[in-house]
């Protein structure tokens, strides 16, 4: 397994910093959680997938955006993150809810410490868009394909570069240089390119959409929510939630890929399931 020391150090630092912060975007967190749960329920029956891998534990460790604890079954899921501090805190949060976190582990999605064909369902939520090159995304996609069983399902979300407010990458570089971004923002792929790479890896995309319909930069949306919450002394919170829910109706429009923050795909690994599945 290869974990690049510099990247691991970065995410460990982010985890330590996050641990002392208070989360101030309850409405957005609730909206993101509900959106992911609805997407997963629409695309797969989780109860029919005994071996599940989730490739990121940041939300489970630090904020209310998490959805893993609300999946059924949540016990026995393999949760993975590159930062040991994040894994530790996610285990603690799971334990507080009576959820078995014995299979939460520290690892790199580009070199998974899992056997070939050992996973029935992979859920990768905005994990692969934190790499600095497309080549690394391709490596990670191939790894996800490797650990999937034939007939297994991949549900993946990644930054949607087709969104109207998605900035050129030099803007991300500038935000990071000025310390305006809370963590490293990486590259992403178009829907066409992602489909082609998965196809080459023996994984067929059978559905796609765009979710979380609010503009870049994310920090501006979060700031606006906090300001409205403070100014309204909490009385505007329901209105804020209705606003996010109203924007999510854009997923049903033909223009969904122009408004959604994340590209979401459902893909199936070629082959047949073994008789016990």
Commentary on this structure:
The chain is α/β, with parallel strands linked by helices. The protein has one domain (5-269): Rossmann fold. 41% of the residues lie in helices and 16% in strands. The chain contains ten helices and seven strands. It has helices at 5-18, 26-43, 58-62, 84-96, 134-147, 169-177, 191-200, 218-231, 237-248, 256-259; strands at residues 52-54, 78-81, 105-106, 119-125, 148-159, 203-211, 262-269. It has a seven-stranded mixed sheet with strand order 3-2-1-4-5-7-6, with helices on both faces. Helix 3 (58-62) links the parallel strand 1 and strand 2 (78-81). Helix 2 (26-43) runs parallel beside helix 9 (237-248). The mean pLDDT is 92.
What is the general shape? globular
Q: SSE string, helix = H, strand = E?
A: HHEHEHEEHEHHEHHHE
What would CATH call the class?
Alpha Beta
**How can the largest sheet be summarized?**
7 strands, mixed
Number of beta strands: 7
Strand content: 15-25%
Low-confidence stretches: none
Per CATH, the architecture is 3-Layer(aba) Sandwich
pLDDT average, as an integer? 92
Oligomer: single chain
- Taken together, the total number of domains comes to 1
Q: Please report the distance between the alpha carbons of the first and last residues.
A: 28 Å
* CATH fold topology: Rossmann fold
Number of helical elements: 10
User: CATH superfamily, called what?
Assistant: Vaccinia Virus protein VP39
Helix content: 40-55%
């Amino acid at each position: 397994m290869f974990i690049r020391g510099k990247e691991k150090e970065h995410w460990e630092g982010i985890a330590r910093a996050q641990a002392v912060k208070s989360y101030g975007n309850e409405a957005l967190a609730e909206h993101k959680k509900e959106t992911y749960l609805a997407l997963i329920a629409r695309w797969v029956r989780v109860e029919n997938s005994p071996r599940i891998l989730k490739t990121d534990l940041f939300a489970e460790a630090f904020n209310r955006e998490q959805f893993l604890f609300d999946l059924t079954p949540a016990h026995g899921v393999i949760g993975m993150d590159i930062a040991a501090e994040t894994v530790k805190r996610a285990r603690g949060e799971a334990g507080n809810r009576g959820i078995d976190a014995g299979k939460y582990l520290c690892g790199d999605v580009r070199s998974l410490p899992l056997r070939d064909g050992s996973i029935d369902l992979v859920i990768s939520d905005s994990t692969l868009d934190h790499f600095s090159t497309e080549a690394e995304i391709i490596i990670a996609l191939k790894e996800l394909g490797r650990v999937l069983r034939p007939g297994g399902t991949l549900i993946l979300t990644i930054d949607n570069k087709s969104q109207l407010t998605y900035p050129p990458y030099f803007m991300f570089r500038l935000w990071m240089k000025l310390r305006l971004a809370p963590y490293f923002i990486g590259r992403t792929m178009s829907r066409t390119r992602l489909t082609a790479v998965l196809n080459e890896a023996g994984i067929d995309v059978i559905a796609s959409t765009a979710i979380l319909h609010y503009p870049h930069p994310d920090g501006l949306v979060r700031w606006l929510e906090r300001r409205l919450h403070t100014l309204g002394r909490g009385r505007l919170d329901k209105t804020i939630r209705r606003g996010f829910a109203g924007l999510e109706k854009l997923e049903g429009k033909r223009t969904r890929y122009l408004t959604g923050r994340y590209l979401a795909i459902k893909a199936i690994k070629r082959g047949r399931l073994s008789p016990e599945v």
